[in-house]
Fold this protein.
Amino acid sequence: MFATQSDDTSIAITVFFMKLAGYWTAVGRAEKCCRFCALVYTIASLIWGIYVHTFDFYYTRNDFDASLYAICNLLSVLMCVLKLFVMLSHKKDFFRLFLCLERKFLNSNYDSYETMVMGTCKRSCTAFIGFLTFVTLATICSYTVSPLITNIGRNESDRVLPFNLWVGVPISMTPYYEIAYVIQILTAYPTGVCYFCFDNFLCIMNMHVATQFRILQYRLANMKTSNVEEYPRGEFRSCISCSAEMYYDKFKGYVQQHQNLIAYCDKLEEVFNLIALGQVLLFSMLICLDGYQILMANVGTERRLIFVFHLLTSMAQLLMFTYSCDGLIRESLNVATAAYVSPWIYLPMNKYGKTMRNDLILVIMRSRSPCCLTGRGFFVVSLETYTSVLSTAVSYFTLLQETHDV
């Protein structure tokens, strides 16, 4: 168990929604029961969503626009299912990662520069998480409000639901319509929560690890021992020569910090690589289908507004995902440069000076292989992935456009 109180707004927001989904730790029997019920409710909602959209696609397979609408909704639910079950299978590893984030990254002792860097990281996380949360909730609200606007002026027999429901009762008539509407709305919000909350934490972890690599660079490049200030100004060379052993001891601590960060990245890769693969494969199709629903589908303005928000959500989520992974790559590579500009050149060629130079070479060599997140080992996730997904989505859209014209 661990505390979840934090002055980091992005973490507080994400923890709140993960509790709603039932994916969080609990203290006490009552809280554990609530978490379990919330998790069962989330899983049942996702299964219900798969059922509804699968049958919707089956019954509308001869209607091109309606079938693409069903496919888009089905892909969104399947992505949520993938994320939830992968995270459930790695629940212990995930909470170990969060515990390390909370204890070693957020609550360490930093100097003024390091505190500034951490503050910048927190603000960036808050901006990303805040925007993604807003557009996702706006998408859910659009699904909720759209049928109400569409039904204005219609008869009972002609009313529509947020999602098509194929059952053996007159679903548009009272009270069946009201019951179905409430059920669909209550089962839609867990899908929205699962759609973004796990990605929020991945972004937070990536950006904080990248910040830790940046802090490590600063410490390596500005390595000092406790007695440097005791020497007169202008005698830095003699000072550092006399304190080679203390410099080497401090350097060993930084090497251990580097090793811990690499191990943390390896564990991130283990937990999230399957999610990364699924997201990259599905996002290109989702962005393509969103664009089709906005620009070409024969639907009303209310339906188009839904997919405007859905498109913003997909693109923001993909950008946040790839940007945070790209930052991890860049900052882990920059450790090599920071190690090279450390004051090793002034150390004498004694036991500690030689050992530090040899170890420094190993640090530089290891840093040339960046830490990264991959799609199950098939590709490295970076900002290039973002452009590749958009390019693929445009290709799919062109193909859909040609099919529609025919």
